[in-house]
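Q: What residues go here?
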């Protein structure tokens, strides 16, 4: 008798679940149909979930990497992690760019001031943005221009393209990232135009930065052999020309007094610091950046994300 009663109850629950989830009836409509109160219908629908009569399945949950993103957020105490989907190394930068732009444009809003560093990942992020007008916004360089052939990846060009896409005011630092002497840097810092832009930098609410590998020999033409040797033996990564070790601890370099960039303390005061980087070649740099809270939002790829755990 007891079993028969349980079966009848289960059949009734299945019927209500079908009305609600399959046929789209409202709770009020169901209550009239089976002659019970709406509150009871609500309780029975909740019971359907507990009993396993109704199971919620989120399509492609594993493919969207939500679980892995959440685990990394928790481990490193990050505001957010987004994992880019890509099939091969050749399209890594475009995949990071698409994922980064989706996240950025959800949080970027009227009145924001955003700062950009350099790099292919950051450049691809800007290229992936669908143009739209956002009121009273400013985009600013966080560092001087880098002397290389990839002008699209320079921070001044990134600021220019982003400003056109969202109707922001561009603010540029008309200076190289590394100058020849401390005296020259001090002269630039006293310029009224530089001071005006630096005030904007200090008002940033968001930053979008690439994470550099401190071992890359591409740094040699800009900083020279001696400075490069000093860096590669001590640092794993670089953000806005600020170098750090595998624990994320800041490394003061001998050439700091020749660098035109946001000061480390001012950069760390930016509330949302988005780092866009991927590949196992940069794993140590990325790990240092998240471990030291140099970034608090990470956009990366699946392989790198797995190794971060």
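A:
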């Amino acid at each position: 008798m007891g079993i028969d009663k349980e079966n009848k109850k289960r059949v009734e629950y299945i019927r209500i679940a079908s009305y609600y989830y399959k046929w789209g009836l409202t709770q009020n409509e169901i209550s009239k149909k089976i002659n019970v109160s709406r509150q009871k219908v609500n309780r029975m629908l909740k019971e359907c979930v507990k009993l396993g009569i109704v199971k919620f399945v989120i399509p492609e949950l594993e493919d969207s990497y939500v679980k892995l993103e959440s685990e990394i957020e928790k481990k490193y105490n990050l505001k957010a992690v987004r994992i880019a989907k890509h099939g091969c190394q050749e399209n890594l930068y475009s995949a990071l760019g698409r994922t980064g732009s989706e996240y950025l444009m959800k949080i970027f809003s009227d009145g924001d001031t955003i700062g950009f560093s350099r790099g292919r990942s950051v450049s691809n992020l800007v290229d992936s943005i669908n143009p739209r007008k956002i009121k009273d916004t400013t985009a600013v360089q966080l560092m001087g221009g880098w002397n290389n052939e990839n002008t699209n990846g320079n921070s001044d060009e990134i600021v220019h393209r982003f400003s056109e896409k969202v109707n922001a005011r561009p603010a540029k630092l008309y200076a190289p990232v590394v100058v020849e002497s401390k005296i020259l840097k001090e002269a630039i810092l006293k310029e009224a135009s530089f001071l005006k832009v630096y005030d904007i930098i200090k008002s940033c609410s968001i930053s979008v930065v690439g994470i550099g590998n401190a071992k890359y020999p591409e740094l040699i033409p800009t900083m020279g052999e001696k400075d490069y040797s000093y860096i590669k033996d001590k640092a794993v990564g670089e953000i806005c020309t600020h170098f750090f070790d595998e624990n994320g601890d800041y490394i003061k370099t001998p050439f700091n007094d020749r660098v035109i960039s946001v000061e480390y303390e001012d950069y760390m005061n930016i509330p949302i610091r988005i780092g866009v980087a991927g590949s196992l070649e940069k794993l140590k740099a990325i790990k240092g950046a998240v471990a030291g809270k140099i970034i608090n939002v990470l956009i990366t790829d699946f392989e790198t994300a797995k190794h971060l755990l």
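A: Context that may help when evaluating the design: The domain at 66-308 is CATH 3.40.50.1360 (Rossmann fold). The longest strand covers residues 80-84.
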